[in-house]
Design a protein that fits this description.
alpha/beta; globular; homodimer; 9 helices; 6-stranded parallel sheet
Chain lengths: ~350, ~350
C-alpha cells in the first residue's frame, strides 16, 4: 500500500527551526469522496512566510496548529479524480502542505489549475512565473510605482522575490541597487541580473557603500528584510519615496515586535505599503502572462536551489535565514535522495 | 522709535522647552528695500512642529540655527509697502517668526495674501480655515481615504488638527472615535464635534475601551501622537487600512528614533503615508473654500486657545505637550498683557 509521508508541527520553534519541531508521520492515502481529487506533490515552495506560520505572532493567516501537517505551497499532478474540475494528469498548485500526497477539492484543500507555460520550466511555476514572480511584480509595480530614472533599492536581491523585483525595476528604466550577503552574491546579481550596483550588507562599510551607490537618494525601497538593513535604506529615502513592504525576514526567527523608525515616513513623506500576494489574485493571469513573456525574451532571469526529499524541508527553511540558497528554494518531494 | 521685539533661539532644548532656550532682543525695524513690505504680526501659530524645528533631528526643513529668530507661522497686516504685490492694509500669512514685525517680499520672507473669508473670524485663518484645517482636510481625504461606514480613529482629537480631521470623517459618513486626555476633553469632543465615541488615553483601560468603541476594527488612523497610543491603534487596524501620519508628538521632546512596530503594516497590508501640508499647496484654494463653507454651515466647529504676548510663546509650546490647550493654540503678539 502506498502511504503518505507527512511532516507535522509538534513544537513552536524558538529561533531557528529544528527537525525536532516536526514529526514524521505515515498515513494511508484517504479514499476520495465525490468532488475530490488526489495530488502527488512534486515541488514544495520554501518561503520566509513558512517561518511566520509556525510562530504564534499575530499574522495574516492563523498559525499552523500543533499536530497539523506543516503548511506549505506545493505544485503537483492529479493522479486520481472524482471531481469534474480536475482531470488525471492536470498540473495544480495550492497549500498542499509538507506531505507527499494531498486531497484537493470539495471539503478538502482548494487547488488552482497551473498548466504548463511555453518556454517556462515547471519549477518556475512556483517561482519566477508563479507566486514568487507575482509577489515581485505587483509589489514593485503597484506599490513601489517606480518611474524611469528613479533609484530603486531591493534588499535580499539574490533571493527569489528580490531578484525578480530588481529586474522588473530595471525593465522600467530605473537605477537599481541590490543588497545581498557576501561578495559572490553581489557580483552575481550585477552580472546575471544586470543591476547597476550591489552592496554587501555584511561589509563593515555597508552604509557608506549604499550612500555611494545611491548618489541621488532612494525613491523606491522594495523591502524584504527589515531590521538594520531597512533602517539604513530608510535613512536615504527621498521626499515622496515609496516602500513596498514585502517582508521583514530579519525578525521572523524572533517573537519581538518588528520595530522600525517611523521618522523618515513622516519627514520624507513616504508611502509605506504592506502587502501579501493574495491581495492581487484577480490580476494573477495578467501578471503571469507578462512574467512568462519576459522569461522567454531572457529579460527576466532567475536562480533556483532545489533540495532533495520532504525531510530536508526544515533544514531548507533555515537556509533562507542564513542566505545559503540562491534564488528560489524548492523541495523536490519525491526525489531519489529521499 | 518703534522697535521690533524678537525671541531668538540660543540653546537647543533637551526635553521640554524653557524660557532660557530663547533670548529676547530688541531691534530697530529695518528700512524697506524696493519690493519689500513691513508686516505687523497679529497672531502666531503654535504647533508641534515648532518643537521639531529647534531640535537637531533629521527633519523636513533645516532646524532653526542658534542665534536666529525662532521660526513660526504668523498672520499679520501690511503697515508699510515698497512692493506692488502688497498694499498697506493687506492681511498676509507666512513664516514671520517669533517677532512683532517682519519684512516680507524681495530678498526677505515670502508671504501669502490671506484675505478675510466671509463668516470666518480672522484667527481661524491660521486654524480651522488655514494651515490647520488644510492639514486635516488633505491628510484625511487624500491619505486616509475614508469610505462611508468605515471606522476612523483620530488621536489628539481635541487638538487643532485632530478635531477638524475627526469632523471631516464624520461629514464623510464614518464612525469616528476620538482619543483625548481626560474625561472633560472626551466629553467635549463628543458633545461639540459630534464624534461617535471618545476614549481617554490616560485611562488604565485605554486599550480595552478602544476595542469596545471600535467593534469592527479600524480602517483609518489619522495619527498625530505616535508612541504607545499609536501602537494600540495599529493593533486594531483592519486589512487594507490607511494611516495618515500627520505627527508623532509623543517623540518630539526626545532625540531618540521614533520607533514603532512595522508588523501590522505587513500583516494587515496597511498603507502608511507621511505628509506635511506644504505638499498640497497647489490645492489650498479648493481646500479653504470647502472648509469655509463647512464652518459657515456649522458642520465644522473649532476651539481656540489664545495666549497673550510674544513672550508667552515658549510656555505655550509646552502646553501642546501637556495637552493643556483646547483646539488651536495662538499667540496674540501685541496683546495688552504683553
Amino acid at each position: 500500500m502506498v502511504t503518505n509521508t507527512q511532516l507535522r508541527l509538534v513544537r513552536r520553534p524558538s529561533g531557528r527551526v529544528s527537525n525536532a519541531d516536526f514529526e514524521r508521520t505515515e498515513q494511508p492515502i484517504p479514499a476520495l469522496a465525490d468532488g475530490q481529487a488526489l495530488v502527488r506533490t512534486h515541488y514544495l515552495s520554501i518561503d520566509p512566510t513558512n517561518r511566520l506560520w509556525i510562530s504564534d505572532r499575530a499574522q495574516y493567516m492563523e498559525p499552523v496548529a500543533l499536530g497539523d501537517v506543516m503548511r506549505g505551497i506545493g505544485l503537483g499532478e492529479v493522479i486520481e479524480s472524482k471531481s469534474p474540475r480536475y482531470a488525471v494528469g492536470d498540473q495544480v498548485g495550492g497549500l498542499f502542505g509538507w506531505q507527499e500526497f494531498c486531497v484537493i477539492g470539495k471539503g478538502a484543500v482548494p487547488a488552482q489549475s497551473m498548466p504548463a507555460i511555453p518556454g517556462v520550466p515547471t519549477s518556475a511555476l512556483l517561482g519566477a512565473c508563479g507566486i514568487t514572480g507575482l509577489t515581485a511584480y505587483f509589489g514593485m509595480l503597484h506599490l513601489g510605482s517606480p518611474v524611469e530614472g528613479e533609484t530603486v533599492v531591493v534588499s535580499a536581491a539574490a533571493g527569489a522575490v528580490g531578484s525578480i523585483a530588481a529586474q522588473i525595476a530595471k525593465i522600467k528604466g530605473c537605477r537599481v541597487v541590490g543588497i545581498a550577503g557576501g561578495p559572490e552574491k553581489c557580483e552575481h546579481i550585477v552580472d546575471r541580473f544586470g543591476l547597476d550596483a550591489a552592496v554587501d550588507y555584511r561589509s563593515p562599510d555597508f552604509a557608506d557603500r549604499l550612500s555611494q551607490m545611491t548618489p541621488n537618494g532612494i525613491d523606491v525601497n522594495f523591502e524584504n528584510v527589515g531590521g538594520a538593513i531597512m533602517e539604513t535604506i530608510m535613512g536615504r529615502m527621498n521626499v515622496g519615496g515609496r516602500v513596498a513592504l514585502c517582508g521583514m525576514i530579519a525578525n521572523y526567527n524572533e517573537s519581538a515586535p518588528m520595530l522600525g523608525d517611523f521618522s523618515p515616513i513622516l519627514m520624507q513623506r513616504l508611502r509605506v505599503s504592506g502587502f501579501i500576494i493574495g491581495d492581487f489574485a484577480p490580476h494573477f493571469a495578467q501578471g503571469i502572462a507578462q512574467l512568462g513573456e519576459w522569461i522567454r525574451e531572457d529579460r527576466l532571469r532567475y536562480d533556483e536551489t532545489v533540495v532533495a526529499g520532504l525531510e530536508a524541508a526544515p533544514a531548507a527553511l533555515n537556509q533562507l535565514f542564513d542566505g545559503a540558497n540562491l534564488g528560489k528554494l524548492l523541495v523536490d518531494v519525491h526525489s531519489a535522495e529521499h
